[in-house]
């Protein structure tokens, strides 16, 4: 009887404390790129805006119940990078950097190998709750493709994420204060 009571109490607490998948999906994602917004004179106003003026890729990771890295990364077509390491990351805070021409070429090659247009919009299962999500936004001119990767993610996306994590560690970061 006590086991049943404890189980019911734990289940009830977890249901009350967790947001529904729809509530989370309806919240605005932090991967919106500030620099893609039109400015009156079309001149980037800050160093951060200049780095991501023409976005190519945004990657945003979410927390889990453990120590999963949480960050947002935006890479522009010219190799400018804006990064915000939030929790459990080797690089913390808002940083800017620049990919070398070789790194940018490699990134674009790996994106092409992913076959972005053929990726599903979501790799997920609402019944699984303790996995972090990774939101990828691929920009190609006027086209944008968003992909959520959380559950039963194809191996090619897992390998791409390993590459992104490696790339983050290779960039020479410059710490920035956002005003």
How would you describe the overall organization of this protein?
The chain is globular, with a radius of gyration of 19 Å. The longest helix is centred in the N-terminal third of the chain and has 16 residues, at 2-17. Residues 1-45 have low confidence and may be disordered. α4 (101-114) packs antiparallel against α5 (155-170). The chain is 32% helix and 26% strand. The protein has one domain (46-175): Mago nashi protein (2-Layer Sandwich), CATH 3.30.1560. The protein is α+β, with helices and mostly antiparallel strands and 179 residues long. It has an eight-stranded mixed β-sheet. The termini are far apart.
In short:
The chain is of the alpha+beta class and 179 residues long. 32% of the residues lie in helices and 26% in strands. The protein has an eight-stranded mixed sheet with strand order 5-7-6-1-2-3-4-8.
Structural topology:
Elements: H1 2-17, H2 21-26, H3 47-51, E1 55-61, E2 70-76, E3 80-87, E4 93-98, H4 101-114, E5 122-123, E6 134-140, E7 143-149, H5 155-170, E8 174-175
Parallel strand pairs: 5-7
Antiparallel strand pairs: 1-2, 1-6, 2-3, 3-4, 4-8, 6-7
Helix pairs in contact: 4-5
């Amino acid at each position: 009887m006590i086991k049943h009571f404890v189980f019911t109490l734990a289940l009830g607490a977890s249901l009350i404390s967790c947001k529904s998948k729809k509530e989370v999906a309806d919240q605005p994602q932090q991967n919106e790129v500030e620099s893609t917004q039109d400015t009156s004179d079309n001149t980037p106003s800050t160093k951060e805006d200049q780095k991501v003026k023409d976005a190519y890729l945004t990657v945003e990771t979410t927390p889990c119940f453990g120590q999963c890295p949480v960050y947002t990364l935006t890479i522009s077509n010219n190799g400018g990078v804006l990064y915000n390491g939030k929790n459990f990351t080797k690089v913390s805070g808002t940083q800017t950097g620049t990919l070398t021409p070789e790194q940018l070429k490699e990134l674009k090659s790996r994106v092409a190998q992913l076959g972005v247009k053929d990726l599903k919009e979501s790799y997920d299962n609402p019944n699984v709750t303790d996995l972090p999500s990774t939101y990828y936004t691929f920009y190609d001119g006027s086209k944008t493709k968003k992909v959520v990767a959380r559950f039963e993610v194809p191996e090619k996306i897992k390998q791409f994420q390993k590459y992104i994590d490696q790339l983050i560690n290779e960039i020479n970061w410059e710490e920035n204060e956002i005003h």
